[in-house]
User: Fold this.
Amino acid sequence: EKFPLSPAAHVAYSDKMKYILQLATLLSLAFATLTATAQNNGSNSPYSRYGYGLLNDGGNAFNKAMGGTAYGFRKGNELNQKNPASYSAIDSLSFLFDFGLTMQNGVFKANGRKIHAQNTSIDYISAGFRLAPRFGMSLGLMPYTSIGYNISQEKPIQTVPTEINQTTTFSGEGGLHIVYLGFGWEPIRNFSIGFNAGYLWGDLSHTVYNDFDDNNINTTQQLYRTDLRSYKIDFGAQYSFLLSKKNKLTLGLTYGLGHDIDRDAVFYDQNIASTGDIHTDTLTARNAYALPHTFGAGVTWEWNKKLRIGVDYTAELWSKAKMPGEITEETNGDRHYTCGTGSLTNRHKVNFGLEYVPNEDALKWHRRIRYRAGFSYATPYTKIGEQDGPRSYQASLGCALPISNAYNNRSLINISFQYERMQPKFKGMVSEEYFRICLGLSFNERWFMKWKAE
Assistant:
């Protein structure tokens, strides 16, 4: 015999369905937004020509102002995808939704010349909530790499009897994105583990176009195309303990699984006659890519729920990751497009960040503002010829402004200002400076609070 639901049960069931539909709608809009803006990827750097392009830092709005520091950060009201073990700390009453974007001005300098370029890009869209005591989950979307550049150079190839000039244009676009689902669990008090399982996808496109001011010389074009599809899995662990009544220490470890990617790279060599006829040779490198093994460790000290300071170290073992290589010709004239290791180098990164809030539970609005600062340093993962690419130095400042109204007093508007310098190893190479404004909304709503009527 089936029993009808009580009015209270009908309300609870309706509320849960409403939350599920709202979450599904948010994620559908997020996916559509990232897909639509995949080509507006926030990059004008010529260094995005190498490897997979420029790497995304993977941070959220709360830690972008702290130099990207994250491995030991653990709070119930913020999402920290960089260490999925932190999901186990999500507040039992909360639904968390984070959205971030960056506006940047890039300054590119080489041989006494200076060029400015502006970009706006979406940093991430994520959500999270607690499924059970000490067990939380998160899901979201974010860019993994970005490619975007257009460079031209002109040089004479003949001066006698007439002068002939060649103009070479290097251009590229695309990048990789990740949609992920993650879980964090605290099996033992103060010790948590977690993982993110993601789907990685994107298009990488590079073009070299050679044009001549003599119509008797055919134009040539080399196209490098890849359509990547793969998985990405990251693991994390955190352990917290009290040093004293007001001092807390959290240790964090992460590991990103490295593996080969079963996708091909395709090279098109085109000869374009003045009549418009195009002759194309197509070469393919099989199973040409791989992701690196990545290791991270961090420690965070928290004092009296007012001050927290964190330090992270990350090692990405790119030197063993496959990439498409050079096109080689044999004595019989056959050409080969192959893949191999050695075109990338291991990347090391150090992050430092701090946050201070006068009183996170204060009634006065200004005493709940969170003040943040940070610094990071990273070596390159790409090589330019036989030399390493530029090193990155980044400094940041920011704050989190509480949203207080009749409906919500738990959400935050995150604002950070970043300065990054990409410093090449040798003179004559392009140096880059970036000035960024990062904005983020950390939406924290008590969706799962049970109301009692008397």
Confidence is low (pLDDT under 50) at residues 1-13, 36-40. The two ends are 31 Å apart (CA to CA). Helices lie at 7-36, 61-64.
